Give the backbone structure.
Amino acid sequence: MTNKLEVRNLTHKFNDGNGVHVLDNLSLDVADGEFVTLLGPSGSGKSTIFNLIGGLYAPDAGDIYIDGARVNGTRGNISYLPQQDSLLPWRTIEDNVVLVQEITGDVDKETARRWLQRAGLEGYEKSYPNTLSGGMRQRVAFIRSLLSPQELMLLDEPFGALDELTRLDMQDWLLKIWEMDRRSVLFITHSIEEALYMSDRILVLSDKPARIAREIEVPFERPRDHDIILDEEFTRLKRDIYHMLRTSDVED
Amino acid sequence: MRRISSWSVIPPLLAILAILVIWQLAATLFDIRTWILPSPVQIIQEGMEIYPRIWSHSLSTIQIALGGFAIGVTVGLVLAILLHLMPRAKQSIYPLMILSQNVPIIALAPLLVLWFGFGTLPKILIITLVCFFPVAVSLIDGFRQTNPTLLNYMQMIGASRRQVFFKLEWPSALPYFFSGLKISATYSVMGAVIAEWLGAQEGLGVFMTVASSAFRTDQVFVAIFVIMAISLILFGFIMLLEKWLVPWDTDRKGANRDDE
């Protein structure tokens, strides 16, 4: 199996005077078409990992490979979905969705409209984002990242700002859309259930400095149904991860 | 929509009407002399009488006001963009910009006349000086207020500096630009009148000077009303332009609900 993303021995400190150690010798892989989740307490440096992979800045040490090419500190290699409200308020839904294509140079409005249709957003093409609900806006943002030519998707707590019911709804929706066009996904969340329900593999992060504390293969088959959260295996894994996060807290 | 906008126009119109009625009643009741305070009716009568003369003076004022406004806005726009793209230069030039507004126009204007004569140039310079500032300051503010989440997003997807500017910073600063534009528009008419006081053959400023030295208070008021009308029209025009170019922000109710 080929790896879409390889992160090797990543170490990074922020130079804010006291030099907090954010990442410590962190390594991870995402295979082609794999859905991998980074699970950890808030402030554990998850977003820093994303910023490094996105190339906002270069790591102090370690290497990042996408499709086998070293991409330390270079931008434009990923498709990205932030936590909330990343749509440009002055653009209509349709124009927002093609934003990434404008950046990379190939605008294809036809495909954009087709995806909006598939995503259940038909009829909103000419609306402005502020007329949509938070959940709908995240759907639009997800479609936008699907339309970007980069095949590795980084999803940074995309449902973090939504209420619980919308959240469950969105998880199903995202999985359904993702199944249509399996891309490699690196997903950040701090919800254990969400991680178990969505991913193929879960990487549990320790608190600062962030290291991969445990790796868990999620055994459930796809396409998934929300009933698996009542499954015994699901509950067992959930309990395991919960204890893991608790003990890593105590250590620090 | 039409209903709502007509409702928002009626209250201020009523207020103005009330003031005019009180003014008219006070002027007749207390028998105030015309050279101290003419009544609205007298002002309107005088206005209709000297209409052709006022019109040609107005044209000349409008001309230099618009000219100065256009140049001032351009200077403000260019300056704001340059300072935004060069943060180092901003540190040294921004204070100078503020100082330029502390120079009293009344003191500066005679100097400009001394240097550049009685022609159009010193007048345009004065208007430019008062007009560039609101545009530059509000635009710089607008650039600074660019949503950091969106900026982070643009960088993550690999947007170049140029793309960040044109696709994010410029449109997000556009409402601020229009705020500055509205202030500059009213300043431009004021600036034109002040510039004309200093020496001009034509213009509302000249007309006012002559009228007030002849104790024609009614004519002074005619000029004041005309100046107010010109400012209002210019302001209204910019508001229309804003509605057209910033459709996502003019519906503030919808936008604010989301921010809070």
